[in-house]
């Protein structure tokens, strides 16, 4: 079974357990994102979706993306304004993204101690963190190897 298929099955189970509606459009948007190695921008999603659903418009895609983010199934890559599938949506804590600036590969980390330390520092300064995005931009091993 492919990784993309596993993510879709996991998403279905998660939505069933939480009582959220995993509509065909939401499923298809997640599938497209999961199949894209470095994530997709909203308008790329719209272009792809429009070939299958003539009625697809920007609000359709943005509503699907909002749902998928709220369910923890997709992350927004702030620096690229793109979306990537979460490989472990059952992980409810913060995350960090490693983004290869050459090939676009995205890896997800879950360093809970980093999140806790940042939240603790913010609390000491009288600030409540509502959302945290940590993106590390660099080059993956494969792209570094091409320099040799």
From TrEMBL:
GO MF, any single term: DNA-binding transcription factor activity
Cellular component GO terms held in the UniProt record: cytosol
Keywords on record: Cytoplasm, DNA-binding, Iron, Metal-binding, Repressor, Transcription, Transcription regulation, Zinc
Needed co-factor(s): Zn(2+)
Entry's localization field: Cytoplasm
One BP term from GO: negative regulation of DNA-templated transcription
Location, primary (coarse class): cytoplasm
Transmembrane stretches, start-end: none
Cofactor: binding details: Binds 1 zinc ion per subunit.
Binding site for Zn(2+): 100, 103, 140, 143
Assembly information from the UniProt record: Homodimer.
Sequence similarity: Belongs to the Fur family.
Identification of the protein by name: Ferric uptake regulation protein
